[in-house]
Amino acid sequence: MWRNSVSFSSKLINSNKSLFNPSSCSGANDVVRPLLHCRSEFHPYSSSPPSSSDYLKLGFQPSDGLPALSAAAVDLASLASKSAQLTRHYGRCYWELSKARLSMLVVATSGTGFVLGSGSAVDFAGLCCTCAGTMMVAASANSLNQVFEKYNDAKMKRTMQRPLPSGRITRPHAVAWACTAGLAGTALLASKANMLAAGLAASNLILYAFVYTPLKQIHPVNTWVGAVVGAIPPLLGWAAASGQVSLNAMILPAALYFWQIPHFMALAYLCRNDYAAGGFRMFSLADASGQRTAAVALRNCAYLIPLGYVAYDWGVTSGWFCIESTILTLAISATAFSFYKDRTTHKARRMFHASLLYLPVFMSGILFHRISDNQQCLVEGSSQSIAELSMSSQDGSVIQKDKLKKHRPPVSYASVAPFPFLPVPSYVSS
C-alpha cells in the first residue's frame, strides 16, 4: 500500500515537472510562456515598462491615447524651445540695431525736457508716453543708420559684429523693424502728446538717418550736424509737456549741443584708425597731430560755462545751479585743456570718460534746482512789491536801494559784466 502511494506521488511530481519543463509538449508550453513573460515584465523590480506588443501577447488591446499624448508633449516642448531661441535671437538683434544704451540716453534727455517744461505739476502718464515714443523713434533712427552703413561697419573692428555685418539678420528685416518702430513712436507722440512733439521726432529721425548718416562719408561737418540731432530730444520733451517752444526751452538743448562736440572729438581721436578703415570722414582724420581736434573740444567746453547763469537768470533754476554748473564745466574744461597740452590716447580717453559723467550730473542738477511756475510767481511777486515800495517812498530812497541790493541776486552782476553777450536782467535799470 505504501509502495503504491509512493509511486502515485512520484508520478504526480513527474507530471508537474513535465508541465513546467520547456522541452515538454508544445500546447502546455504555449499556454504557460506568456504567463511567465507577463510575470517577469510586471515584476515590481523590473526596469522596463510594458510595451504595446506585451499587451498584445496577453490578449489586451492597447490604448492609443498614451503614445499620442507623449508625442504631442514632445512636439510642444520642441516648439517652445525653438520659439524661445528665436525670441532671444531677434530680441538681441533688435537691441543691437536700436543701440539701446544710446537710445536710453536720448530718452533721458527727452524726459528731462518734459519735466522742465511741465511747470508746477508733472503729468507722469504723459512723461511715460513721451519717453516710450522717443525710445521707439530713436531705435528706428539707429536701425536705419546701421542699414545704410552695413558695409562700412563690416570694415571696422568695433562694429563688424553688429547684426547686419555679421549676417544675424537680413537687411529687409531690419528695415521693416525700423519702419515699424518709427511709425509707432511718432503715432504715440501725436496721440498722447501733441503734433509739435511728433513733428520734432519725425524731423529728427529724418535728419539723423538721411542727412547725418550719409554726410559721415562726405564731410567732417557731420559732427556738428550730429550735435543738432542730439539737441532736439530735450526740445521734444519740452514741447510734449507745454505744447510750445519758448526761449527757456533752449537751455538744455544748448547744453546738449555744446557737450556733444568734445564728446565726439574725443571718440573720433580714439577711433581715428577705425573710422579711416570704415570710410568715415571725421574731423580728426585730417588732423594728424590732434591739436585742432583738442582745440575744438576745449572751445566748446568753454561755451558750456555761462549756461548755468542763463538758466538762473531766465528763471528756470535756482541760484545754486549756477555754482554747481560752473564747477562741473570747469572740471570737464580742465580735462579738455589737459588733452590740448598733451595729445595722447590716455588724455583723450580721460576726456571721453569725463564727458560721459558730465551730462547725467548736469541734467540731475537742473532737475533738482528747477523752479516751478508757482515758485517763479512768488519770486516775481516779491520783486514787484519791493519795486513798488521803493517808488512809493519819499524820503527813504537810500534805505530802499539798500533793500533792493540785498534782494538782488548776485548773478545779475555776473551776467552783465563777465558775459556781456548775455541779456541784461530786467531788474537792472538805467
Task: Outline the fold blueprint.
Layout: H1 2-20, H2 26-41, H3 52-58, H4 65-97, H5 100-116, H6 124-148, H7 150-153, H8 171-192, H9 195-215, H10 222-242, H11 251-270, H12 272-278, H13 291-303, H14 307-313, H15 320-341, H16 345-368, H17 373-392, H18 397-407, H19 411-416
Helix pairs in contact: 5-6, 5-10, 6-8, 6-9, 6-10, 8-9, 9-10, 10-11, 11-13, 11-16, 13-15, 14-15, 15-16, 17-18
Give a description of the structure.
- The protein is mainly α.
- It folds into 3 domains: 97-246, Tetracycline Repressor, domain 2 (Orthogonal Bundle), CATH 1.10.357.140; 249-371, Four Helix Bundle (Hemerythrin (Met), subunit A), CATH 1.20.120.1780; 376-416.
- It has 19 helices and no strands.
- It has helices at residues 2-20, 26-41, 52-58, 65-97, 100-116, 124-148, 150-153, 171-192, 195-215, 222-242, 251-270, 272-278, 291-303, 307-313, 320-341, 345-368, 373-392, 397-407, 411-416.
- Helix 6 packs antiparallel against helix 10 (222-242).
Radius of gyration: 40 Å
Spell the H/E element sequence: HHHHHHHHHHHHHHHHHHH
% residues in beta strands = under 5%
CATH topology group of the largest domain: Tetracycline Repressor, domain 2
The assigned structural class equals mainly alpha
Counting DSSP H or I runs of 4 or more residues, the number of helices is 19
Mean pLDDT: 79
Q: What general outline do the C-alpha atoms trace? A: globular
Percent helix range: over 70%
Q: Give the CATH superfamily of the largest domain.
A: UbiA prenyltransferase
What is the end-to-end distance? 155 Å
Total domain count: 3
For the secondary structure, the number of strands is: 0
Weakly predicted, low-confidence segments: 1-9, 16-47, 55-61, 382-387, 389-430
CATH class of the largest domain: Mainly Alpha
Corresponding CATH architecture of the largest domain? Orthogonal Bundle
Largest sheet: none
